[in-house]
Amino acid sequence: MTKSTFDLEQQLLSDFDSKLTAEGVSGERLAYRLGILSKIGLTEDQGSRRPGFSQEEREAKNWIVKWMEEAGMQVREDGAGNIIGRLDGKHPDKPVIMSGSHVDTVPNGGHFDGTIGVLSALEVAQSWKETGYAPEKPLEIVAFTDEEGSRFNGGLTGSEAMMGDTDIEAMQTKKDFDGRSFEEVINDVGLSFEGFKSAGRPHSDIESYVEVHIEQGKRLEKEQLPCGIVTGIAGPYWLRLTFKGQAGHAGNTPMTDRQDALVAAGHFIHYISHLPQKINDSAVATVGNIEVKPNGTNVIPGEVIVYVDIRDIYEDTRQQLIDAIIQTAEDISKSWAIILTCETVHNVPPVPIKKELQDKLEKAMQGKGIRPYYLPSGAGHDAMIVGQHVPSAMIFVRSKDGISHNPAEWSDLSDCVQAVHILKDYIESCQSHQIIQQN
């Protein structure tokens, strides 16, 4: 398939169950909008390239603004570039129900990650306009900026700015893939650093947040379900462990007289792969980055730095896993006469989803004849940032083969539209009941 023949809309509609176009929700409209956005930043592999704060992300946001206005929303852009559409409802002074996601992508990503969350929320607003539904509380739809972080090797930039979580000093030092400063880059898309710093808003403005997202895994596919209820978002905790031994000649140092840092690190990597399942089913630990020094073929490694990504949806069990990993590293280092140092380099708290919100999603699924299925999110999302401050929920949509961040990323249109119906019923249920704020 060549670039000129790529047509996501037609692919989506080819096996769509048209009976799902109901109650003001249109599968055809959702397919059309996914198709429009898929052509912005289209790669030779039929993937998507829309880095945060790029002209491509800006073009996608311009379409979102147009569609928000079509749904009768008031639209504004905050200092971080987040696009916010608002329906006042009958009581505009009440805190808002918020929904959304992002439209930026990884360098050669798919066409559903993030995008489906924004367009699903838009379908809810559009359905209300078409059916004459008037919400009691305000609804806000947000297209967050730079969730993926591919430009500055970070991510969740827009949601952090809105929630007041940005490390401003760190942002000032960031450089993008072309060596340009953060301030230079955002100036190119009509933003300013002063405006960015003022993008935060009171958390009390938001009653709750809900995000539709593709699963990026295989659980729903194995269960043969179109969508599922997220129980919590696993916060990433990164450890840097340095194993320091003694470099030496590979030929002249006997095997019995070595302090080989890589051998110790190798044993450590093997053992930690068995630790998470001993603590919690949703816990994971990954070593994806190691540095070997001096890194010579004929030199015994004198120092190895290992980065461990540790995640779970519960703070207590995640901490148990962290402690177990550190203890394992200490035990192995001692047995191999290696000096060990440990350092935390990244720590985002997990976000468990309130049972009250999960129950509302369960009721919505049962009302649509879908078997409720619960699963954790191992990946971070804008909901992870917003959820640190206000009650937040997530709906996952089935992913074909669990593939994501890849041009082959795919979710059937029928699954996406069923998730929209669940989102719609969920948001409407929130209109008649106040959700208790976080402590």
From TrEMBL:
The entry marks the following residues as binding Zn(2+) 2, namely: 113, 148, 405
What NCBIfam families does its record include?
A: hydantase, PRK09290.1-5
User: Which UniProt keywords are present, listed alphabetically?
Assistant: Hydrolase, Manganese, Metal-binding, Zinc
Report quaternary structure and partners.
Homodimer.
The entry's family comment says:
Belongs to the peptidase M20 family.
Q: How is the cofactor bound?
A: Binds 2 Zn(2+) ions per subunit.
Stored Pfam families = M20_dimer, Peptidase_M20
UniProt GO MF annotations: hydrolase activity, acting on carbon-nitrogen (but not peptide) bonds, in linear amidines; metal ion binding
> Could you confirm whether the keyword Protein biosynthesis appears in this record?
no
Determine if Acetylation is one of this entry's keywords: no
For this UniProt entry, which residues form the secretion signal? none
- Peptidase M20 dimerisation domain spans which residues? 235-335
Q: What is this protein called?
A: Allantoate deiminase
| Cofactors named for this entry | Zn(2+); Mn(2+)
Q: Which residues bind Zn(2+) 1?
A: 102, 113, 213
